[in-house]
Specification:
This protein has helices spanning 3-9, 13-48, 55-63, 67-78; strands at residues 82-84, 91-93. It is mostly helical. It has a single domain, classed as Arc Repressor Mutant, subunit A (Orthogonal Bundle). Helix 3 (55-63) crosses helix 4 (67-78).
Amino acid sequence: MSTIRWQRSGLSWEDICRRAGARRRWNALRTFLANERRRQILELLLELGGLPRGAQAEIARRLKVHPSVISKDINHHLMPLARPCERCGTLQTRDWWREG
């Protein structure tokens, strides 16, 4: 919201600060829950033995979220943390300090 709209809204500075604090708290909670879900995804991937066919759908059923959420978490947040081994093809954690 622009500054002019806040000024016309009739809210006090204290109310504006409270709203901003509530947004920060809510966004921090959402971030925490997303990170917890990603931790659970990693545990389930280990339990299922990697990513066999249907693993993402099974994880989505267990965590009660849409399969696209699992797919995005894996592709955008978890896979960048690992890379396939050049010799055997298994996933290994990335050594960011060694990679240029």
